[in-house]
Structure formats: C-alpha cells, structure tokens
Amino acid sequence: MGDPFGMPIAHCAASGMGGIRTAGDMVARMQMLRYRLKDAKDYVAKKLETDTMALRDEFEMRRLRERLNIGTITGVPGVARGLEAKARIAEILGIRINAVERLKELVKL
Fold first, then answer.
1. What's the domain count of the chain?
2. Positive or negative, the Cα torsion across 65, 86, 15, 76?
3. H helices then E strands: how many in the chain?
4. Fewest Cβ atoms nearer than 10 Å: which of 23, 71, 79, 86?
C-alpha cells in the first residue's frame, strides 16, 4: 500500500515551491523517490542544465519550460501539456512515471 501520507507531503512541497510555475512538480517527484529536498533540487537543476536558484524563479522557469517543452501553467500553443509534458519530464529526469508507462502500453496495443 505504501505510505498514506506520502502524497500530501509531496503536494505540500510542490505547492511550496510553486508547483508547475517553477520546478516544484519535478522536485516533488524526486522527493517521492526518496531524495532529500536539497538533493532533489540539485538533481533537477543538473538535468535541466540550470542552477538551483533558477528553479524557484517563475520567469526563468517559464522560459525554460517552454524551451524544453515540459508544460507551463497557462496554455501556450504548441507547448506540451498533460501526459505529453509528463512524458518529456520523465525522459529529461530519467525517471519512470506510471501514467506515462500505462499510456505507452496502450499505444502498443
């Protein structure tokens, strides 16, 4: 079953960092994989080829998210959203996201 308090903690951490406005959603994913907050931020910054200070800057992350095509808080024509954005995040971070894996299985059928 797992830890019943795992998701609320991750949601608090993500919303505290701005969620998809910044890099909070990605940092929270790494925390769910048992990374400490500092290590999660360092890992995400390295994978995004930026520094940890940029992870909390809404303007810089907006430009970075558009450039990497990993979703933004508001819809931008041509920029990934939903599962497409999740799939790109999984690829960039080198992690497995269950929803993306299930979609890949459906596409194989």
1. 1
2. positive
3. 6, 0
4. 79
